[in-house]
Amino acid sequence: MAIPTVMGTEIEFGIIVRNDPDFDPISSCVLLVNAYREDPDGQILWDYDQENPLADARGFQVDGEKYTPNQQENIARNKTLINGARYYVDHAHPEYSCPEVTNARDLVVHEKAGERIVEISRREANNLLPDGAVMLIHKNNSDRKGNSYGCHENYLMDRRTSFKRIVEHLLPFFVTRQVYCGAGKVGSENRGEPCDFQISQRADFFETEVALDTMVKRPIINTRDEPHADRDKYRRLHVIVGDSNMNEHTIYLRNGVTGLILSMIEDGAITRDLSLRDPVRAIREVSHDPALGAEIQLDNGKRMTAVQVQQEFLEMALAYASSHPIDAVTEDVLARWQQLLERLARDPMDLSREIDWVAKKALIESFMDRKGLDWRASQVQMLDLQYHDSRPDKGLYHMLERQNKVERIVSDEEINAAIRRPPSDTRAYFRGECLRRYPREIFGVNWDSISFGFEEEPIKRVMMSEPLKGTREYVEDLLDQSDSAAALLANMGA
User: Fold this and answer.
1) 0.70 exceeded by the pTM?
2) Whether residue 106 lies in the annotated active site
3) Which of 26, 115, 380, 436 could cross-link with 82 by S-S, CB 3.0 to 4.6 Å?
4) All domains in the chain, ordered by first residue
5) What does the pLDDT look like over 206-265, one tens digit per residue?
6) Distance of CA 231 to CAs 223, 297, 475, Å?
7) How far apart are the first and last CA of the chain?
8) Side-chain half-sphere of 116: how many Cα atoms within 13 Å?
9) Whole-angstrom Cα distance, residue 157 to residue 71?
10) Is the pLDDT of residue 286 over 70?
């Protein structure tokens, strides 16, 4: 039986400071992250000791050195938030890692809360810039200078599941799911075939099928083996192939359908061989065909469209759901996925409310018709970027949302609450509540541990290797009975 679902996302945002001739992305990221203040003293460290980014899921350790910043740099680059999230500087990008959640609906809530946190800190950071300088943040995947940054999804999996089997089934799924997960993009990059508009922002940047790296020779399947949980029981599937989405419905299906497929893989319910002859070529072919008519080559000699491949996965999912218990959110995801694939097969442009790439394409084409422009016009590329602008009064997605032209999954009230409230049904609850209640007594934090420091006493680390413990049900009474971190540890018998 598949293990319970636990998922999360890590979003790398694009950053620029307009009217700043000395713009430096790293220092601007540090300014942005530190403009968001929750911790009154700002002295909590991110615990890099618990990380091992060089472990490969294929069973070996890659050569290299693990980067660990000094204490001052650590504090400057990292914020662990009371909603259980991590907000930090990753290379030359601000990154928001949402807390662990158990379903796609909560994922939408907390990813959207991350967007608002980034926008809050952008406004605060702007007050610290020289006159005339303006910081801009975009939730997109390319700077148009050959650099791509990611939206990374994470899913908890049973370590007993063969990684070879995971790769075999996920390659055709990931190559084709972009038909409803793509964020849309004007033109091509990274030596891709020229095109006017394509489905995915990331597709041009994948150059191999399976590998550990995330920035050079990017793979469709990433092999990082860093579970942030009990290594003997779990693996964390680190997915780097997706786009950064604005549309709530797109995010909902992106994570909901993927989580369902992973459960099916664990339960041996993928019974059809949909292996592709050349997945790297196919992911670009699908992306460069917004009409969705192109056929990709399967290993068995068949040729199918991306929608047809997804329909094969859907049929297996429907059979799986008829014989396995699924929760209400997954049942809703399955129904929406089925309806969406039927509509994509008829006319993809009928889905501007539900899918980012369709909404963007329709918006741009309407603008071109009014202005008499073609796809090569600079204004068209600006519209592409403006769709992802974090500013509510400037971003084109936000405009569509105000005009009720996009499908909503969650409410603004839920999103605003999630800015300061962790999910209640994962260990993120314990992490977030400890940060809220005992900020001056916490020394360091990681996904699977919290370290407490008391004056001259040794650091005391509490491990959280089970993602579904530390929930409100488990620990709320314990926390309420502990008026300090020292009392908490005493009550825990630590």
Assistant:
1) yes
2) no
3) 436
4) 7-38+81-417 (3.30.590), 437-492 (no CATH)
5) 999 999 876 668 999 999 999 999 999 999 999 999 999 999 999 999 999 999 999 999
6) 15, 37, 23
7) 34
8) 16
9) 33
10) yes
